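User: Predict the complex with zinc ion.
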Amino acid sequence: MSFTDWLKGREQKARGAADKRAVPDGIWSKCAVCGHIIFQKEILSNYHVCPECGHHFALAPYERISMLLDDGSFTAIDEDLRPQDPLEFDGRKPYRQSLNNAIETTGQREAIVTGFGRIDSHRVAFGVMDFAFIAGSMGSVVGEKVTRLFEAAMAEQTPVITVAGSGGARMQEGMLSLMQMAKTAAAVERHNQAGLLYISIFTNPTSGGVLASFASLADILIAEPKAFVGFAGPRVIEQTLNETLPKGFQTSASMLEHGMIDMIVARSALKNTTAQLIASLGYKERSVV
Amino acid sequence: MSFTDWLKGREQKARGAADKRAVPDGIWSKCAVCGHIIFQKEILSNYHVCPECGHHFALAPYERISMLLDDGSFTAIDEDLRPQDPLEFDGRKPYRQSLNNAIETTGQREAIVTGFGRIDSHRVAFGVMDFAFIAGSMGSVVGEKVTRLFEAAMAEQTPVITVAGSGGARMQEGMLSLMQMAKTAAAVERHNQAGLLYISIFTNPTSGGVLASFASLADILIAEPKAFVGFAGPRVIEQTLNETLPKGFQTSASMLEHGMIDMIVARSALKNTTAQLIASLGYKERSVV
Amino acid sequence: MSRRFYMDFERPVVELEERLEELKKHPAAHQPDIAKEIKFLEAQMGRLKKRVYSNLTAWQKVQISRHPERPPFSAYLDNIFHDFIELHGDRSFGDDQAIVGGLAKIDGRAVMVVGQEKGRGTHGRLKRNFGMAHPEGYRKAGRLYKLAGKFGLPLVTFIDTPGAYAGIGAEERGQAGAIAECLRTMSSLPVPIVTVNIGEGGSGGALALGVTDRFFMLENAYYSVITPEGCAAILWQEKEKAPEAAEALRLTADQLVQLGIIDGIIPEPLGGAHRDPQTVARQVGDSVIKALGELSPVPAEQLKQARYDRFRRIGVFSEGKESDERANRSNV
Amino acid sequence: MSRRFYMDFERPVVELEERLEELKKHPAAHQPDIAKEIKFLEAQMGRLKKRVYSNLTAWQKVQISRHPERPPFSAYLDNIFHDFIELHGDRSFGDDQAIVGGLAKIDGRAVMVVGQEKGRGTHGRLKRNFGMAHPEGYRKAGRLYKLAGKFGLPLVTFIDTPGAYAGIGAEERGQAGAIAECLRTMSSLPVPIVTVNIGEGGSGGALALGVTDRFFMLENAYYSVITPEGCAAILWQEKEKAPEAAEALRLTADQLVQLGIIDGIIPEPLGGAHRDPQTVARQVGDSVIKALGELSPVPAEQLKQARYDRFRRIGVFSEGKESDERANRSNV
Ligand SMILES: [Zn+2]
Ligand SMILES: [Zn+2]
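Assistant: Here is the predicted structure with zinc ion placed in the model:
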């Protein structure tokens, strides 16, 4: 099983929606982790977290926006950026076809939504990735949108918040994808050197070229509970080592224990925590620099 | 046995001179490590290194100066700084007495000699510690002389080279000694922020408050072979852990393996290496900053 | 009653306390003669406490600073600060629980707060390694210092450690270098720094949180270049001389004010901070708030220069011809 | 003769080479008819080599880039640079032997040089972990980058890695973060950077040495977002499709020039760099020296801006109303 398959498995497990049924009282789902039966409105009121086991189901970008940003405050930017097929990449499935499928399934044009909004009235530049769009992979469009987001935030002197969920760089755009790592890292560094705040939130899963570029370069790194967070896929590591991995390896808890992230924050507390961080760090007195 | 005893044992071992005899052909010594009999002039011509086992014998400051700096190029500064006994410290032996003994034995006024000289014609600020002076410990005078050395180097825009050999902070000056760590670290940092080069050389032994302050903050860290380099004394660690320490622990080789120093350089190559480093790093083109 | 932890010199106080409590529990406690004895003993108690605690030796203070019930950093965090968000990890090896840090507010002002945490109870102490940090702890601290610098947040640090941990992994991962980097970073940080030593100030491991603009000590805290035991082992060749070493090292708050090394002493109730943690915390909070108020208007360059000068002038030595000696004792 | 390592597609060349060598060793090699055959075979050899090596597929180039006799970074270090002083360690955990770096001179100019070293021989390869670095290797690289920045030394990097190491310790010590920090540091380094990919350019682990002002590749080197095998396993669900994946990924030097990602190709002798390491090294040296000559007069701010722009413009996408599409293909 490839890393992407493995991730997709996790993803499907994570979407209670996969197991959605209608009964007279309403629509219900079954938590893929604990088996608990949950009514849809209960899921919605509980931040898409299983009330039984605390599993954090995957979110679509606009669900995330509605949970994290002030109501109606978000305005997308660069919505009209669309992927091309510069390598005319033809694997088992042509890239064009993968793109069309992803666009159809998610209703998005690419694996990230970027724009400006408010968190507890603080204006922020905001980007949220969509793992459902070709495993949240970063190709030219994701790289460009992330870079423009940081540039726009610099122009406006606002903090940036990103929510990552990604399998890594997008293979089908080859080296153009790898170069987005350099491009986004450079943009983050400029924003950093301007003294501005960047908060990066890792959701399940965050890995590969996204974790090894912009997403790791924030002032504050937050992970959702029980998220997969790691550079290499566990299958790759198992093949390298020819042994099974320790329990809890590459989870947000392990990342915290090994000093890689600042904190794990449950989805229900994410908005408050983020707002508090921005209140402390987001608008410094320039005089002290 | 205390750390200082242990260090003193090493020190005595290291000084082949302790075992010096006169025979008709000249003066000879016995290497305390391998037992080899060495004539004094052979020691001198071999950089005070045992030709049999490569053991680096301890050097007096002016021996070090003659090996590392261009002949006759050294001019000492701040020679007239002398220790006081601000705490009127009275251990098993009064501090005044320890000082007088040290001054008598070493012919030095304190545990460091500082000044300016040339290495392969490059002008440098230079400081060398004397372990024979109360275990090379850093009290007010050592801290002040190190600080003045960095300040003078900043004024002249020259690199600084220090040769450390120290058991740590000087207990008999209490907190005044601990504060020298902060004072010297701050001076190094100013010199660093001015874009100037600092090369720190660890000799046997370098430990405690000297290793945990200015001596570790250099751009390039060099250790002599087989030197003891560590923060805490091995006896302290053994007591903490209640077990014996791994072989080679806290040696320059172990420091290299664990990524803490840039290189180990034999005494015979030290001048050349230092000169080469200064040639590359010491006189940068200011335009690029 | 469960026996409290007490130090040798406290025995008379504790014995009297126990007798008093026993009497008060007595069914006939309200009877005139017993009530009278209680009253008498209570008066005696006040005098006894004053006698025992008012003239503590250096070594007795060291013992109080190590009292197992002494309020650790977390007590001050809870009592003085609000909206604390802990920030974890050194971003390269681990999250050392012996040092705790994060964003918080004090009196409405956002600050970065970093302190050494000894923990409470056996489990807590083990988890915190008795407040003895590994290099990753100092690297976490350094990371938070820099974050404070980037965002212009004042830094408040709390010292309470017997010393940096002395162990194999700690040495192998560069304990000395990690501490040195903290000194370097603090020395040039462009924000106000206020430090409180709330208990043990053990050597370089403490100083890594102490290159500061204002340094306060609790009355019974100590701050020393080496532990009294370590000093005794080296200079007297016997650990039992720790009380003498404690005296000789001049490690108490009042002695360090005299030496010009610290700025102020925060009083403790008779017997130590653990006898009234709330009051002590409030007084610590007041000192920190006042110092932040003084430092905050100062421009960054001026702050850094003043901090440099503060340490620059510490040291006692003589200079010049021996006959014409001019001693530098500006700090004494 | 000891059998040389060869790749499948090289078999005809190797067989002919072996026959030729045998003939030459023959006692009667000087006799006219044998001498004539040798001459004939040598002519044939030239044609054969050209046929076999001139139109290599992407996958064949990947195989050449991994040839066990291919000159590693150390060969270039020895041949192009002089006065090399190796600088070790990340100053916090270890000294990763998969990345080698230090001060050196090239054509008399002092530079910082950092490269991935695969090692030679079984022992050497193991010691170098086959050129796959751990986080401490990337942290060492980052430390040397900053040192170059502080002292205004141009940075020369050599890429040759299948990828960053994928292992438990590597993950636990923050492989992703360590790579990201390298990208960040290189992107804002105030000195000229020149990079040569001498063999394998495996993904983020290679890019951590490649945020540069000039990027050269040896003719048979590859540079890819993922190894062909990895790509085949994921997209084709079978590793055996690696040749197809190699083709699809556009990972060869000439394809990357076309994509505007690299600046130049340094030729190799027919069959690969291992057939004439000296000549290849000389050509690599010439390219580096020329690039350094061009970049050195450029002021730091301008260098940094140009480097930002270089990566800023990479990416292929369309923008605007779908009907009125304006594609960004500036780099193609
Ligand atoms: Zn559940
Ligand atoms: Zn010997």
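Chain B has ten helices and twelve strands.
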